[in-house]
Prior knowledge:
This protein has about 400 residues and is α/β, with parallel strands linked by helices.
Amino acid sequence: xxxxxxxxxxxxxxxxxxxxxxxxxxxxxxxxxxxxxxxxxxxxxxxxxxxxxxxxxxxxxxxxxxxxxxxxxxxxxxxxxxxxxxxxxxxxxxxxxxxxxxxxxxxxxxxxxxxxxxxxxxxxxxxxxxxxxxxxxxxxxxxxxxxxxxxxxxxxxxxxxxxxxxxxxxxxxxxxxxxxxxxxxxxxxxxxxxxxxxxxxxxxxxxxxxxxxxxxxxxxxxxxxxxxxxxxxxxxxxxxxxxxxxxxxxxxxxxxxxxxxxxxxxxxxxxxxxxxxxxxxxxxxxxxxxxxxxxxxxxxxxxxxxxxxxxxxxxxxxxxxxxxxxxxxxxxxxxxxxxxxxxxxxxxxxxxxxxxxxxxxxxxxxxxxxxxxxxxxxxxxxxxxxxxxxxxxxxxxxxxxxxxxxxxx
Length: 409
């Protein structure tokens, strides 16, 4: 029995790592001998990160030539040669598969362009053609900018065995606006809510490593080097706002700052360490502003974040690390996912009382500082509410894997 996991853009993104690790561990708790093949953009790096999990990794680079091959086969079938290397890779991926699981969290929308959307759907279409059941796992879906893009997704989703969505906004959008049958759509939660944090001993040592003073509060900042590219906003203004926010945290809150670079990337426009370094430099490497800059795992980041007093984050899974640990967390959102997840946890009224800010609103210094100041003032109330709802949210997360286990049975 084998599960195929797709939608993996690479574990340099610790949000992707959080979803992949949780998926592997949760499925193997239910099916200990389950084999797994993972289609990923960063094969060499992920082989190192997943060494202990005994999974088969396949580069998704093979899909692009396969797509061309598919077209050539259709147009010039007399030249079709099934021994092509890309064809072999896809055969290897799907060989013996009992289920194909689309991970990734927010990859089925218009946010990253139609070509990216098609590329993520491509292996799922091959799985369906091969008779392998397809599952969309805990996704935020859409909203799609055009009906054409919606139909591209629906063409695969309608033939799928199961679609789980990680927040209520997507459930309503998929079942009401797009008309997908509620028989196959289930409202669950993000897999990362079940990611185990690093051990208390490791977390204690990390706090010493980053010179965190136990007598001062700590604010974790999940800064994003890539958010200005996604939202087409001003990068220099983005840095200017963050520097004012950090100054407020240091001077007004009397707190320390730990910068969380949740995405390391070989592409400079998406590597959070670059922005973090710039911010440290602006503060002349003030020891109250620390960068958690080691090659941390998602669990180590979560452990570190869980000890903070407030999290402000542009990276959704750095935010989920705080939320799932019961820490008051203010996401800076650029899509439906942040508002949907926060509303599931806190309710619409609480979210709109200063516990969510859009990427565009964040670029106004007064709005950004006032919103973070409001979150700081209500952090204990928010933490208490989170701790009261987290058992239900984590049960919803577990439901994802219970449902997949039923398909595998």
